[in-house]
């Protein structure tokens, strides 16, 4: 696992629970496809595009650039739910 980092939501969670985020300040893109629990999945599902969220990510299997959100804390949203 990594330390929590800031990410901007660039694609809201779709019907397959995939959310695309961009890391600060590196501008790397991550596809979050798994979640530590339902609470983490629900927090990410509530985030609109443009929201900034602190997440701790780990690799999801062997596939390239797919990740599991181990923890999720909302830092700033543009209309979504805020809080921890």
From TrEMBL:
Residue ranges annotated for the DUF7999 domain, each copy included: 2-77
Superkingdom field: Archaea
Pfam families, per the entry: DUF7999
InterPro entries xref list: DUF7999
Protein's UniProt name: DUF7999 domain-containing protein
